[in-house]
Amino acid sequence: MEILFLCVVVFLFLLAVFDLSVGVSNDAVNFLNSAIGTKAASFKRIIIVASIGVFIGAAMSNGMMDIARHGIFRPENFSFYDLICIFMAVMVTDIILLDIFNSLGMPTSTTVSMVFELLGATFVVALIKMASGSELGFSELLNTEKALSVILGIFLSVAIAFVFGTLVQFIARAIFSFNYRSRLKWKIGIFGGICSTAIIYFLLIKGAKDLSFMTPEVKDWIKTNTLLIIAGCLAFFTVVMQLLHALKVNVLKVIVLMGTFALAVAFAGNDLVNFIGVPLSGLASYQDYVANGGGDASGFLMGSLNGPANTPVYFLIGAGVIMVVSLATSKKAQNVSRTEIGLGSQQDGAPQGKPAAPFGETQRILQGEEPCHKPETAPQPLLLWLRVEVHLDPQAVEQREKQQKGHRNQPPQRAKAAEERKAEFPEGVEKTDQQGHGRYSFLVIKRFAPLSV
Predict the structure, then answer these.
(1) What is the distance between the alpha carbons of residues 90 and 15, in angstroms, rounded to a whole number?
(2) Spacing of C-alpha 98 from chain mean position
(3) Residue spans of alpha helices (H) in 306-393
(4) Is 141 in contact with 73 (CB distance < 8 Å)?
(5) pLDDT single digits (tens) 71-104
(6) Where are the alpha helices (H) located in 66-215, listed in sequence order?
(7) CA angle 87, 157, 238 (to 5 degrees)
(8) Which of these, 25, 123, 382, 443, is most buried using a 10 Å CB contact count?
(9) Sign of CA dihedral 6, 11, 12, 16
(10) Nearest Cα residue to 17 out of 369, 315, 410, 444
């Protein structure tokens, strides 16, 4: 019987390899999309930065394994046989579900998948135990408090990400505006210092407690001197970012790559449990059963899983290698990444080749590439302001600046002609056909859309 259970555990690890591949193809592309979408670096360099982050994050992920061990169910009330059935159901379901989403190019969350798969499998096994005459109820079999906190944390994280993402975007746009190139001279150092300090804070100070080589003395020192560390990082990175800008280095790309590295660390430290947490829990259960079970798989209870996980480092490094290879080679990962980048693209079109109306038409109207059939639907000054302030091509704004400078220095004859033209088209619209369709002209928008300096 032990040989049969050993084969099941080996099969769980084989499934974990496939789960790592399909899981990374879906969820892990999240920390690459910002760098790929902004073209902060070549794809190979982005993969190298992400790979380093994944390895570091894998070394910090040991504490998260407890979710798969006793976060959803109460192992002291389940036998070894029950848990092996739960673990097998979770792994098979996870691979099928994620592969379907990958084939469709649809992003999903591996954390949500694992939590609800564990919850569903445990619920069914609990029903079977209760139907077979067990006196235990759902409150004794399911870890309802922990499961509820995990589920609430998942949904709250979506709301928190939306609110803070909107807030940070608003602040960044208020500081730099859409014509950001003219605002970088002195603000980029402070902005880069704040961003870098925030990344260091969450990466080191918040994540230091999970590092295996951190001694209690070092943790206490970091906790005591947190404000000093933050102030030092802010001053240091502000100076560094300002110097990089003076040396013609694109500081915004540096910040994006730093964020990619931090997201890779956070991903590996948090989501690695979704891929190998269940097989490692199965291995720990098998080892306890072989040592203390006495051959009774249905009667040996797995209270040992209530203890903290002690994951061997070679498992974590092996999982990191598989994740990196999947990131670099998986076509489905690139398909999902292309879908997510397409959702935020400023170009015409939609993911998977679907039309992006009415957004594409609106964009073409604002860019002057398509006539506005109903110009009375919005005030012309507003549309002209949008063309400049929300213009997708900074070269068009530079072209307008040159034109305006040329108008300020033009001869009297040209100035008089421009005044006559402005009087003829006071709304800044030049008619192009008999139906009155209009295209917005850069030549006469100065009065409506003064450039931000």
Answers:
(1) 10
(2) 17
(3) 313-329, 331-343, 359-366, 380-389
(4) yes
(5) 888 999 999 999 999 999 999 998 888 888 877 7
(6) 66, 80-104, 110-131, 138-141, 144-176, 184-200
(7) 120
(8) 25
(9) positive
(10) 315
